[in-house]
Design a protein that fits this description.
The structure is a single chain. By secondary structure, the protein is α/β, with parallel strands linked by helices. The protein has one domain (2-253): Metallo-dependent phosphatases (Purple Acid Phosphatase, chain A, domain 2). It has 6 helices and 15 strands. The strands form 4 sheets. It has a 6-stranded mixed sheet with strand order 4-5-7-9-11-10. The longest helix has 14 residues, at 24-37. It is globular, with a radius of gyration of 19 Å.
Length: 273
């Protein structure tokens, strides 16, 4: 199974730029084209939050328009820039999304991996939260299928990144979350967004993978005290392959590069000066 993870698309209303500079719609158009053209063909795309910038219905309408050419099934979870009810109303055919409350879900039997979406949103706040209710839901959901290999999708990363201004709007409840993961070895990885950077670590003994943003990136500022900002480093996505009981992940950039060039000529001789 091949799964592409895009994240933090931050789509605005038609014609508007994020921070007056970033054409997030153009980046998503390029991502959709790249995903459609990928070989081998992808089985699923997951979008790990911050689908739009202000949670406005017109933004979701623009997002739907941009996703319309995508020929691959996709799943969504909300991020801190999203608004639950507006997202629900924009994607009525995504019937795995609950009609009310948190946008948690578990998808069983449709794919070789069980997909569990976990809503970390705090309305009106950039930070994320795993309250007692959400943690109980996750523990019960994982306990219901202890032998099913599982991916957990969430927006806010369950770890400290070292990017100080982003950690201030990080996730509460992470020690309890890590303990739940320790009790459930069927979890193959946690896929998250929010940080707009490729970051890999472990939480509760399970891989936690944060994907680079599909548009702008958060500046890599690790000394502390920086005001925070964004860069126009190349956007991209994560590519996850599930095969023979193992998950393998690749970071893919959306930029166009020269190549590929061969290492050897037609006679098998190394091409070198």
């Amino acid at each position: 199974m091949w799964i592409a993870q895009i994240t933090d698309t931050h789509i605005k209303q038609v014609g508007k730029l994020t921070y007056g500079r970033v054409n997030t719609a153009s980046y998503l158009e390029r991502a959709v084209a790249r995903l459609n053209a990928h070989r081998p063909r992808l089985d699923l795309v997951v979008i790990t939050g911050d689908l739009v910038d202000f949670g406005h219905p017109l933004e979701y309408a623009h997002l739907r328009q941009l996703l319309e050419p995508l020929t691959i099934p996709y799943l969504i979870i909300p991020g801190n820039h999203d608004e639950r009810d507006a997202l629900r109303q924009a994607f009525p055919e995504h019937d795995y999304l609950p009609a009310s409350g948190f946008l948690h879900y578990a998808i069983d039997g449709r794919y070789p991996l069980r997909i569990v979406g976990l809503d970390t949103v705090v309305p009106g706040d950039s930070r994320g939260e795993l309250c007692e209710q959400r943690l109980h839901w996750l523990a019960d959901t994982l306990a219901a299928q202890p032998s099913a290999p599982t991916l957990v999708l969430m927006h806010h990363p369950p770890f400290v990144s070292g990017i100080e201004h982003m950690d201030r709007i990080g996730l509460t409840g992470t020690p309890e979350f890590a303990e739940i993961l320790r009790q459930h070895p069927q979890v193959q990885a946690v896929l998250c967004g929010h940080l707009h950077r490729n970051i890999f670590t472990t939480v509760g003994g399970r891989p936690a993978i944060c994907s680079v943003g599909t548009a702008h990136q958060v500046a890599l500022e690790l000394e502390g005290g920086e005001p925070g900002g964004f860069t126009l480093e190349p956007p991209g996505f994560m590519l996850h392959r599930w095969k023979d009981g193992k998950l393998l992940s690749h970071a893919v950039m959306l930029e166009d590069f020269e190549g590929p060039y061969p290492f050897y000529d037609a006679n098998g001789k190394l091409l070198d000066e």
